[in-house]
Each structure stands twice: as C-alpha cells, then as structure tokens.
Sequence to fold (250 residues):
Amino acid sequence: MSISNVVVAIAMEAEASPFVNQLKLQLDPSFFPTETPFRAFRGRHNNCNLTVITNGMDVVYGTGVDNVGTVPAAIATFLALQKLKADTDPADLLINAGTCGGFKRKGATVGDVFLTTAVANHDRRIDIPGFASYGVGKVESTSVERLAAHLDAKLGICTTGNSLDYHELDSHHMLQNDASVKDMEAAAIAWASEIWSTPHFGVKVVTDIVDGDRPSHEEFMENLGTAATSLQRTLPRVIDYVCDRTHDEL
Fold:
C-alpha cells in the first residue's frame, strides 16, 4: 500500500515553523485535547495528507519555553496517532524531525543530515535482570537506505536522553549504543509509534558535536537557526520522496 498519510513530529517551534510556513500548513486547534499544550498543523502536500505536531510551550512550570524531552514527545505522538486512527485515517508513516548532537567519532559534522537506523536510550540505567535491555529500549527504524542516497544523507543510530549535556556514565552508554547522533526525543517517539504499529524513522540535523571541545549548549544555540533552515530544505524533499511510495521502496 502506498504512503498517503504522514505525521511529522518536531519538538521545538523554532524547528517546525519554517517547514510549516513553507508548506502552508494550517493550525488545527481541535486536533489535541484542550488540556494539552501540543499543537498540530495540517494540510496536503502533493498526494499526501500531512500532520506536523509540536510539543508546544511549557505551562506547568511557568517558564514558557518549548516542551522538550521524552515525556511530552511520547504523549504528543501517542495522542496524534490515536486521533488519526479514531478518525479512520491512520498514519502510514511517522517522521521524527529535528536537531541533534553528532559524534565526530562516527563522522558527524555540524550541518550533516542523518536518517536513523535505530534509536535507544542512554540515561535509563536499570541494573536489574530483565530491566537492563528495557532501559536501553532499542527500537529499529524503518529502512530508508534509498531515501538516504536520494538526499545524500548519512545513516546512523540516535541515542536519546533527557539532558542536553552528559556525564561519564552517559558517555559509556552512548558508546554502547553505537550512536552517531544524540537527541532528547527520538526513543520516546519511536516507543509511541511502536504501540500503534506505525512505521517510523528520524531526520536529524547536527547542531553540535557531542564528543567535541565546545560546550553543547553554546554550539547548539549558535547553530539552531542554520539547522532549522537545513530542515526546511530537507523535509519537503523527504515528503516528496515518501509520498505514493510503498515502505519497501524507501
């Protein structure tokens, strides 16, 4: 069956806005429950129904910043896929798009576009028999080797944690995960997608080098605008490619 209904999950508004504006998607205020801060922008692009979801802004802690991390990402993804299925229009594909840190040991440089081959957690350390692998929570992404070649993008595993920085234990587990890139949402989005049996993969643009010599937060803020522009260029090409193709053709 051809792909005709795509969900794009993007955590931060600054990452999503250029893409939403370029494709002239419209805010759908009725998509998510009113109690949630999440936002959905909907429309058609070529022959695909397209829904872009974001985590919205913090209203719980009074900061007003973007909701980031695994909790809002998992809930927003779960609710979006549930909504589409309830409307008898289930998603054919979920794309997690956004920025990431990259590892120079895996050949990543600032501005690189990575498509995920799998995702895993590096900060869920549960040293109890049976729970250790649950904590890592590795989930394979749908195969997108042809798309990667089309985009001239790199392929690799994305490791997820709830902190922008990291310490030695995180570094050990990121290495064990064989990660090429690092973010704060991918593993949670994949988990929610797996619950709804929705094929998924990530499109990640590198803003900072995790194993480099600069603090991650400085490099991230310095390169966020450039990365958002790169996403704006890349995502329409991704949607153009996946629409009307079967999963086996990705």
About this structure: The domain at 5-244 is CATH 3.40.50.1580 (Rossmann fold).
